[in-house]
Amino acid sequence: MSAARDDRLSVPLPPDSAEVIRDAAEGEGLSLEDFAVEAMKRYAREVLADRRLFRVPDTDWSAFEALLNAPSADTLRLRRLLDEGPGADKAE
Asked: Is the predicted pLDDT of residue 3 greater than 70, yes or no?
C-alpha cells in the first residue's frame, strides 16, 4: 500500500449495527472512521497472530531457520515470564 494515497472503504450498515458502532465510537471519543479503522486493525492483528502456516521463499529458508534456532535474548522481562508464568506482571 502506498503512503501517498488513502485507501477508501464504504460499507453499508443496517441501522441497528450502525447505532451500536456509533455509540461505541462516541464512547471511545473517536470519530466513526477512526473507530472503524482501529477495530479493523485490531482484528487484522488477531487474524495474523493466529496463523498456523507461514510461507517462506526457498531463498530465505536458511535465514528463517537460523532465526528459529538462535537462542533468545536473556532479558529481564523474558526471565520473569519464564520464572513466574503468564499474567504474573498483571497481578502487581
From this structure: no
